[in-house]
Each structure stands twice: as C-alpha cells, then as structure tokens.
Design a protein that fits this description.
Keywords: Signal. This is Extracellular solute-binding protein. It comes from Nonomuraea aridisoli. It is built from 19 helices and 14 strands. The chain is of the alpha/beta class. It has two domains: 217 residues, Periplasmic binding protein-like II (D-Maltodextrin-Binding Protein, domain 2, 3-Layer(aba) Sandwich); 209 residues, Periplasmic binding protein-like II (D-Maltodextrin-Binding Protein, domain 2), CATH 3.40.190. The strands form four sheets. Strands 1, 2, 3, 6, 11, 12 and 13 form a seven-stranded mixed sheet that branches. A three-stranded mixed sheet has the order 8-9-14, covered by helices on one side. It starts with a helix and ends with a strand.
C-alpha cells in the first residue's frame, strides 16, 4: 500500500485532537452541507452572487460570515458548523475518502494542514491572490500554514506562549516572575520549601505544548518538503528535546509541579483554588479560563502574565501553541472564489475587533496586532494589565514558525504515552525521548516514508 493510501486509511482513526484555540462552538454541528449551498446556517443576502460553502466553528462565526457577505460584491458564503476538532476532521476525512461532500473552504488547526495536504485534499492558494495579502501576516504565521513553499491556509488566530501567574501567591512567597527556566525551578523550590502550592503543571495531554517548549530549547522535530513527499526528517531525541523532558521530569520528581491533565474540571478547580502558582499557556488562555469560570468570585483580579521563561535570556526564542486557518479544499468548485473567501473571512476590522474584545481569538492579522486599541488594551482577566503590549504581541511578532508533520496526531498521541511514563517515574526524560523517536520512526516507515 502506498504512503498516501496508508495515511488516508489511518487518518480518520487518529482524528482525536485537542482543540487548543477558542473552546466551544456554535450550533450542534449535526448537518454537514459539504459544498451543497442549499442548506446554510446563515442567510445569504445577495442571492444573485456565486456561493462558496464553508465549515467553521468559531463562536462568533455567524457575525464573521454576515460581515463578509455584507461587504463583498463578488461572492457569498454559505456557512455550516459540522463540529469542532475530531468531529469536523472525521467528516472531512470521510469526504476525502469519498471524493465528495467537502466544503469549498474549511477551518482547520494549523498542525493538521500537512495531514490533509499529503492526501491532496487542500489547494495551494498562492496563485489566487496571495501577494495581495502576504503583508497582512508575519512570516512565522505563514510558515505555520505552509508545506514546503506552498501555502495551504490563511492564518487567523494563534497562541504565543507566556506564563500566567497568581499575583497573590507570588506576593506571599516573595517571588518575582522568573525570566529563565533555571529561575523558574528555583522559585518553585522556594515556594515548596515554604509550604506553598505547586508551582505549575506538567500534563500528559498537552503534547503540542511540550513540543513547543522543546522547540524553544532548539529542537526541530520534523523536516518535511512535499517536493520529496516520501522522505521526512524526524529528530525527537536530540539533546534539546531530552533536556526539556528531563527538566520537567526533575520538577515532577521533586514535587515542584503537578501532573494533572489540563482542560479537565479537576485542573480548572485547582487553578481557581490557587493550587498552582503558574500556568504555562497561550494567548487564547485568558478567554478559555474566563469561560471555565476562572478569574471570577474570590479569585478575581489575582492573575497576571509575564513573558515565557527562556533558556538563554540573551537569545530569546518565542514559541506558539495552537492556531487555526481557513483552507481551500481540493473539492472547491471554484478555487479562486474560495480563496477570496479564505483571505477575506475574519480579515475585516469589525470581525477582528469582535474576536479579540470578546476573547474569542488572539488575532494574527497585523491590522489587529498593530492596532493601538488592541496593543494597549487593559485586560480585565489580568486586573487591567496591558498584557498584549507587554507580553503577547512581542511574542507573536518574534515567532518564527514551525514545520509540522503529515502524521502529527500520531506523534502527539505517542508523546502523551511517553510523558505519562515520565510522570509515573518509569523512564527518564531522555529515555522517553529515545522511545518516542523509535516509535514515530517506526510508524513513519509503516506509512511508506524514508526517514532521514
């Protein structure tokens, strides 16, 4: 069986991704319209124009689509919410396998793009107006939606990483925000020695975060160029990757951080109750935490944010967790019109402003990132701190992007298994990295790849 056919057969089984950005969704997502424009969630106001079908899950998608349709004189959008994360990906995979039933435009997480690109399910949008919008996003944002030199999505939101912390805990134990990971460990030890709470959390179910922290140290997990589609570089047990896993294994062993799965009621309860002094997370976290009930009641005004600790403060590296894009599918009836929709959705001022003011997205469009109102916003969750100006915007601007693999979900699942073993004390971080390398290389070979 060829590499593409194997991936086609196995992708659906692996579609259980954690959706890292903008939790929640609008509608039940039970009715998948594919590229049939006869059944839309929204009302199309200009019925004489051609229609592009789209799947998307942002909570304010209705507003975004209505804004686009109202402002556009060439094309209209028929929007359907078929679900979020694995719900949508399963439906898309079914449509890919059947050769029919996919929308013209689909909202997907950036790390999923290579998985669908290798199946020829997405269209390179460079010929369809890319030069006109290229300057609207950073090079790092474009890299995250590219495979080789080809561009398979329009970036919308991202997740530059930072360190959220409890001001009350830091004040009680005389801690200042650590600027390095060495200082982070020292602060954690100080709080523990004084009888304080856990300093953070090292969870098995956030593999994308673990990967980002390894990249910050200098790791490059994958190298992949579709020009050599059967070849892939895999380096999951380089020294940087081992160093990061050993670092967190040591903090776990010393009892400085917890090991609770994140995005669970138990973890959120711990955040609310002050069981953790810090939360290493992305720019979408304030919206997620607010929606989960954090920062309300007794813990109102207790949170602040600082830049992500660095390994080498003289050579800082900014990394990202999460982010979504609008991609044109290979089943699009008119790829040029579909690309116009992908470029134009969530790119108007009203939609972008609604997204960040309501903490639905952290925008990647530079019109928003450079907007003084956004940059200088006093974030209520952080007790009025200008978090964008001080932390998130500089991190987003400095982010250089990453190369994802065509089997990213398998890698994330394999990482989860190894981090679970670290947490149990069964293996060291370095041993886990070696086991992860062996596992993923073996899987890649089974899919027909030659591993470099």
């Amino acid at each position: 069986m060829s590499m593409k056919k194997r991936l086609l057969a196995l992708t659906a089984m692996l579609a259980t991704a954690l959706v890292a950005c903008s939790p929640g969704g609008e509608g039940s997502g039970s009715n998948a319209s594919g590229n049939n424009a006869s059944n839309c969630t929204n009302t199309i106001p200009k019925k004489d124009l051609p229609v592009v079908t789209m799947w998307g899950w942002y909570p304010n998608m209705q507003l975004v689509v209505d804004n686009f349709n109202k402002q556009n004189a060439e094309v209209q959008v028929c929007w359907t919410n078929v679900g979020q994360g694995s719900d949508e990906y399963d439906k898309f995979q079914t449509a890919i396998s059947a050769g029919t039933g996919a929308p013209d435009v689909i909202m997907i997480e950036m790390d999923r793009i290579p998985t669908f690109q290798i199946q020829n399910a997405l269209v390179d949008i460079r010929p369809y107006g890319f030069d006109a919008v290229k300057a609207d996003y950073s090079e790092g944002a474009w890299k995250d939606v590219s495979v080789g030199d080809a561009v398979y999505g329009v970036p919308v939101d991202g997740g530059p990483l930072a360190m959220i912390y409890r001001k009350d805990i830091f004040d009680e134990y005389g801690i200042t925000p650590p600027k390095t990971w060495a200082e982070y460990e020292q602060a954690a030890q100080k709080v523990k020695d004084a009888g304080g709470p856990l300093f953070g959390d090292f969870a098995a179910n956030v593999s994308a975060l673990t990967m980002a922290l390894q990249i910050q140290k200098g790791a490059a997990p994958f190298t992949y160029d579709p020009a050599q589609q059967s070849s892939i570089g895999i380096k999951l047990n380089d020294q940087a990757s081992k160093d990061v896993l050993d670092y967190w294994a040591r903090l776990v062993q010393k009892g400085l951080v917890g090991t609770q799965d994140q995005f669970t009621p138990e973890y959120i309860s711990g955040v609310i109750n002050g069981n953790y002094a810090t939360y290493i997370s992305a720019a979408w976290a304030p919206g997620y935490l607010t929606g989960a009930g954090v920062g309300k009641g007794e813990d109102t005004g207790k949170f602040a944010v600082a830049p992500l600790p660095q390994w080498d403060p003289d050579n800082p590296v900014q990394v990202n967790w999460g982010g979504s894009a609008f991609s044109v599918t290979s089943q699009a009836k008119n790829p040029e019109l579909a690309a116009k929709v992908a470029y134009g959705l969530y790119a108007d001022d009203e939609s972008l402003t609604d997204g960040w003011t309501n903490q639905i997205i952290f925008p990647l469009n530079l019109k928003a990132l450079n907007d003084p109102e956004f940059v200088n916003l006093k974030v209520a969750f952080f007790d009025g701190q200008q978090a964008n100006k001080e932390v998130y915007v500089p991190a987003a601007n400095a982010y250089a992007g990453v190369t994802y693999s065509p089997f990213g979900q398998y890698y994330f699942d394999a990482m989860t298994k190894q981090v679970s073993e670290i947490i149990k004390g069964s293996v060291t971080g370095a041993q886990a990295a070696d086991r992860l390398q062996e596992d993923v290389v073996s899987y890649a070979g089974e899919q027909g790849f030659t591993v470099q």
